[in-house]
Write a structure and sequence with these properties.
Layout: H1 3-23, H2 29-39, H3 47-61, H4 68-71, E1 78-82, E2 85-89, E3 94-96, H5 104-117, E4 128-132, E5 138-142, E6 152-156, H6 165-170, H7 179-187, E7 192-196, H8 202-210, E8 219-223, E9 235-239, H9 253-260, E10 267-270, H10 277-285, E11 293-297, H11 304-314, H12 319-329, E12 332-339, E13 342-354, E14 359-367, E15 371-372, H13 376-385
Parallel strand pairs: 7-11, 7-12, 8-9, 8-10, 10-11
Antiparallel strand pairs: 1-2, 1-6, 2-3, 4-5, 5-6, 12-13, 13-14, 14-15
Helix pairs in contact: 1-2, 1-3, 2-3, 9-10, 10-12, 11-12
Length: 398
């Protein structure tokens, strides 16, 4: 959009805003169309033109403004605004966008409008906010002077489309020979964590694997922000809540895990393990709740034990107790990675106690580019003990 067109749209949006305020009506689609006709003197225009103008004005008033086209692009996963620059990620890494968001004041107004729509405060007194739009898009904003060359605005889009294992095989995320291994892990009710860096596709893969859970089982999801949408007939979702402006009313993941245990879960799933709730999850998995799952930030599978140690300490678990709990509760680590060609399954490993102190170690079962590893025997044994056939690749160690 050219700067002239953008300025014209901003002026029209301001006139429509005043008109809506003077008429004291809600900014519904019908009210916006009526206001656009009135303020733009567009009654001689066709309905299509008026609807298009009303859509643009709505984006300026209550929507994402100039970022709306990017949010509607199904290939875009992240939108990052640095002052007046816009960067997007379409699964191939960040690239500069030609979208014009205006100057710092325009970005500030956009950030405040988006966060206010989610009931969050963003101003000089609280110059940062983390919010979630009604369509599921995650919004994070930081204002100057905290943002030295800002404002900064980060949006993580939420796509409603669910994926199947076949979809991920077709797009190259999962090698065809490895897909049966993931299916066997779910069928055997082994507890697993999907690990990886930010934006590596952890949530997408976890939701896909949850779609393999038999329809006779009940899945209870516990999430900081509702993102998982598995294709399954019996899913119950719980979402954490931050405190209000008075600092009250917070509901933490730890609170939700304890509530979930009273809801008869066949599969207890934590969308992202990031704090003291890991202690409650491990306790739950050690008391008869097989097949649990979650995601965890970790750069490599070897980093997972240390990451679990750090989180366990937040929950009051000493190191020795944490490793004992992990060894009994979790069996599999599924690592994903973001590469230039897209997001891929990078490795599968099993958790195994090593040494006299029985410290948890991740032993490779399969690694991209390297094939199967020493963990195949352990995973094969776990599958056999639970009556699940061992996939052919696990008997083809190289």
């Amino acid at each position: 959009m050219s700067s002239i067109a953008r300025d014209s749209g901003m002026r029209l949006a301001e006139r429509v805003r005043r008109h809506i305020a003077e008429e004291r009506v809600e900014a519904t689609p019908g009210a916006l169309i009526s206001a656009v006709r009135h303020e733009a003197e567009a009654s001689v225009l066709g309905d299509t033109a008026v609807l298009r103008m009303a859509g643009r004005v709505r984006d300026q008033l209550v929507g994402a403004g100039p970022l709306a086209p990017l949010l509607s692009d199904p290939s875009v996963t992240d939108i990052l605004v640095n002052g007046g620059e816009v960067w997007v990620d379409r699964g191939r890494g960040l690239e500069r966008s030609t979208v014009d968001v205006g100057g710092p004041d325009d970005v500030r107004r956009l950030a405040q409008r988006l966060t206010a729509a989610c009931g969050r405060r963003l101003d000089d007194g609280l110059p940062y906010a983390d919010a979630r739009l009604p369509d599921g898009t995650r919004v994070h904003a930081v204002l100057p002077p905290i943002a030295t060359s800002g404002p900064y605005l980060s949006l993580r889009t939420f796509r409603q489309r669910p994926y199947t294992v076949a979809d991920l095989v077709e797009c190259g995320t999962i090698p065809p020979a490895v897909a049966p291994v993931l299916e066997a892990i779910v069928a055997a009710r082994l507890a697993y964590l999907v690990t990886g860096g930010t934006g590596a596709g952890k949530t997408t893969l976890l939701a896909t694997l949850l779609g393999l859970v038999p329809p006779t089982e009940r899945i209870v999801l516990v999430e900081d922000a509702a993102e998982l949408r598995p294709v399954h007939p019996h899913v119950v979702a719980l979402q954490a809540r931050t405190s209000n402006v008075e600092g009250a009313g917070a509901v933490t993941l730890t609170d939700l895990v304890r509530q979930a245990l009273r809801m008869r879960p066949d599969r207890l799933v934590i969308g992202e393990c990031r704090g003291a709730e890991i202690a409650d999850l491990l306790t739950a998995l050690n008391t008869g709740h097989d097949g649990g799952a979650g995601t965890l930030h970790a750069n490599t599978p070897a980093d997972v034990p240390a990451r679990l140690e750090a989180l366990g300490m937040l929950g009051g678990l000493p190191r020795a107790a944490l490793h004992a709990q992990v060894n009994a509760a979790l069996q599999v680590i599924v690592q994903v990675r973001r590469r230039t060609q897209g997001r891929v399954l990078d490795s599968i490993g099993v958790l195994y106690p090593m040494g006299e102190d029985r410290r948890t170690t991740v032993v490779p079962v399969w690694q991209r580019g390297r094939g199967t590893g020493p963990g195949t025997a352990t995973l094969s044994r776990l599958l056999t003990e639970r009556g699940v056939p061992v996939p052919p690749i696990l008997g083809a160690r190289r």
